[in-house]
């Protein structure tokens, strides 16, 4: 069992509050990803759960037990660090068995558990090597092995893939995901990479400036972003935003062209921020006029950068594009794919969107 | 090409000449002198172990060896352990340790002679402030002659030596401890290590290189230290604090007994060489060297 509940977590350094009351429920076995830009407090939150930081207020509850003031070792939580943090003077086997050795586990027992973990992670041939003799990906696996050996209630990952090259990152991403599916241990994973968040998470927590911006499954966040921030953060290339206003028959661009119908009725005349994803745009005979600024074929898709009025729009299409830079085109937004946000609060105006 | 080579040789020539003149030359001289019979300052025949025989036959030699062992081994071990303790304390983050890190170097910048004279007075049997304080507080009822008691004098010298040499050791180890990666210490906390276990299993292995280097360096410093014991006791009372350095000085420049002095110097040299060799051997294989197995 390993369900985690965070209730109104606050953390201050002196007079500066960096976490402003975080509430979060994580079910047993769930893979939760904390995602957000640098300085949003995601790592601080993770370190607070680990017990490496003391919180200034709120409760951390692990399986109905309050663990606020417990030492890290008493929490039954294991953590994988960004820089692996392997002990350079110990072999892979010693690194993995260190926690068991500290808790005075029998030598044969340690050996058995280390071998079992090494088997899972394909580390068996490397058990006698030192960390310096390993590649980045292997070190990363040893760091995970060190966590697995303890068989904890919760795994914490602090940006574990940020030191790996792009190819290895994709590979390790699926390894971590597979590992989770195999062990079914509750996992909390911090990253600033929204693709990692989208591909791995059961539940994504988007954070910004010490607040939780939105919690939901990857597709929920993608399809119903609660704010301009979430909409812009999730998805690549990111959503297009334009200033618009509500007309009698839907949302109109600044120059009066019709963009689409909002999900919920909006009082005519109200200023909104309209958002639409690059892949939800189509070229058409009529619609919003724009000039092609850039054509970028990526193989399967083509990415077009368009200019209209003050705005620069990005659209992607799977169709062959014959237009050249400088050509005039018309674009429309697919039915039901237009997102509307309040012009001031930047919160979604869709029905059922979480209030600010 | 040839021109470049000549230039290269020309440029290292001064250093080679200096090393030959000031290191190799005198060493060779002392080594041959130790194998030469010397009578009344006159060299009488090369190729004899008489000097070594005379040296080891003298009971003072064995006393000197014992004192030197206390001086070098006791001094080094205490210097490094006390330095490690102080360095660990200085590595903590606080305003106090920030100031102390600067202040602790004071003993290091005071000249040897001043240190020796000041301590000599403070340790004086009748008028020394240390003995006085011990008496005033009732810890002893009679004056202690720290430098006059043959049982105490060697260890008293070691204490002064520590006071003088430990600060730099502490500072070097403090710097090494502060460079131990935080995430390793945090990983150890997650692994369940308490403060002592983190120090023992993470900090110490991480500073192992500084630790061995500092041990060998202090060993060499202490072996070479002359002014402190010479000024404070001059080897007395009755050779009770005679160590190699003072003994060699006394034999050569007070008794003009160059044969014995040079024999002692050779023993001293062999000792230093073995210390350095040990250091190189320990550092030869290490977990930090890439690809070694």
From TrEMBL, chain A:
Protein's recorded name: ABC transporter, ATP-binding protein
Pfam families per record: ABC_tran (PF00005), TOBE_2 (PF08402)
GO biological process: carbohydrate transport
Organism, as annotated: Oceanicola granulosus (strain ATCC BAA-861 / DSM 15982 / KCTC 12143 / HTCC2516)
Gene Ontology CC annotations of this record: ATP-binding cassette (ABC) transporter complex, substrate-binding subunit-containing
This protein's record includes keyword Transport: yes
Lineage, opening ranks: Bacteria, Pseudomonadati, Pseudomonadota, Alphaproteobacteria, Rhodobacterales
Residues annotated as domain ABC transporter: 4-234
Record's keyword annotation contains Transferase: no
Family note: Belongs to the ABC transporter superfamily.
SMART domains: AAA
GO MF term list: ABC-type transporter activity; ATP binding; ATP hydrolysis activity
Keywords: ATP-binding, Nucleotide-binding, Transport
């Amino acid at each position: 069992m390993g369900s985690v509940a965070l209730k109104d977590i606050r953390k201050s350094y002196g007079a500066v509050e960096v976490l402003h009351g975080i509430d979060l429920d994580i079910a047993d076995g769930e893979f939760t990803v904390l995602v957000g830009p640098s300085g949003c407090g995601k790592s601080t939150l993770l370190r607070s759960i680990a017990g490496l930081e003391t919180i200034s207020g709120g409760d951390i509850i692990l399986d109905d037990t309050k663990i606020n003031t417990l030492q890290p070792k008493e929490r039954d939580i294991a953590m994988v660090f960004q820089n692996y943090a392997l002990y350079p003077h110990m072999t892979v086997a010693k690194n993995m068995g260190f926690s068991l050795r500290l808790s005075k586990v029998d030598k044969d027992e340690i050996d058995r558990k280390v071998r079992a973990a090494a088997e899972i992670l394909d580390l068996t041939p490397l058990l006698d090597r030192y960390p310096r003799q390993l590649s980045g990906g292997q070190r990363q696996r040893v760091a995970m092995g060190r966590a697995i050996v303890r068989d904890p209630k919760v795994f914490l990952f602090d940006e574990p893939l940020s030191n790996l090259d792009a190819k290895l990152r994709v590979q390790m991403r699926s390894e971590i995901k597979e590992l989770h599916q195999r062990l079914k241990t509750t996992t909390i994973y911090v990253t600033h990479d929204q693709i990692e968040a989208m591909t791995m998470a059961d539940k994504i927590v988007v954070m910004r400036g010490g607040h939780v911006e939105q919690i939901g499954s990857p597709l929920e966040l993608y399809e119903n972003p609660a704010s301009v921030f979430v909409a812009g953060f999730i998805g690549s290339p990111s959503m297009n935003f334009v200033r618009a206003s509500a007309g009698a028959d839907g949302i109109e661009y600044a120059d009066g062209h019709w963009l689409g119908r909002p999900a919920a009725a909006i009082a005519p005349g109200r200023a909104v921020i309209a958002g639409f994803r690059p892949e939800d745009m189509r070229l058409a005979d009529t619609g919003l006029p724009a000039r092609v600024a850039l054509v970028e074929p990526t193989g399967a898709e083509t990415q077009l950068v368009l200019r209209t009025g003050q705005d620069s729009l990005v659209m992607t299409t799977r169709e062959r594009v014959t237009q050249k830079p400088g050509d005039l085109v018309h674009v429309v937004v697919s039915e039901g794919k237009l997102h509307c946000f309040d012009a001031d609060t930047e919160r979604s105006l869709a029905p059922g969107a979480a209030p600010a | 090409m040839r021109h470049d080579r000549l230039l290269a040789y020309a440029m290292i020539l001064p250093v080679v000449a200096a090393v030959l003149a000031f290191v190799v030359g005198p060493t060779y001289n002392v080594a041959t002198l130790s194998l030469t019979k010397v009578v009344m300052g006159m060299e009488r025949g090369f190729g004899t172990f008489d000097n070594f025989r005379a040296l080891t036959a003298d009971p003072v030699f064995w006393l000197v060896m014992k004192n030197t062992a206390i001086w070098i081994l006791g001094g080094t071990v205490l210097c490094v352990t006390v330095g490690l303790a102080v360095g660990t304390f200085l590595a903590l983050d606080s305003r106090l340790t920030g100031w102390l890190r600067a202040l602790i170097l004071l003993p290091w910048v005071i000249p040897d002679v001043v240190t020796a004279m000041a301590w000599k007075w403070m340790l004086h049997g009748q008028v020394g402030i240390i003995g006085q304080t011990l008496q005033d507080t009732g810890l002893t009822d009679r004056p202690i002659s720290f430098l006059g008691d043959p049982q105490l004098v060697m260890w008293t010298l070691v204490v002064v030596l520590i006071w003088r040499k430990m600060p730099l050791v502490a500072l070097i180890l403090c710097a090494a401890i502060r460079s131990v990666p935080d995430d390793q210490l945090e990983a150890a906390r997650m692994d369940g290590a308490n403060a002592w276990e983190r120090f023992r299993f993470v900090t110490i292995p991480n500073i192992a290189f500084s630790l061995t280097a500092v041990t060998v360096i202090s060993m060499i410093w202490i072996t070479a230290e002359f002014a402190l014991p010479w000024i404070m006791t001059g080897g007395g009372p009755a050779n009770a604090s005679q160590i190699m350095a003072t003994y060699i000085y006394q034999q050569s420049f007070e008794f003009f007994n160059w044969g014995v002095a040079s024999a002692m110097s050779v023993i001293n040299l062999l000792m230093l060489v073995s210390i350095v060799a040990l250091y190189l051997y320990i550092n030869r294989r290490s977990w930090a060297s890439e690809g070694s197995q």
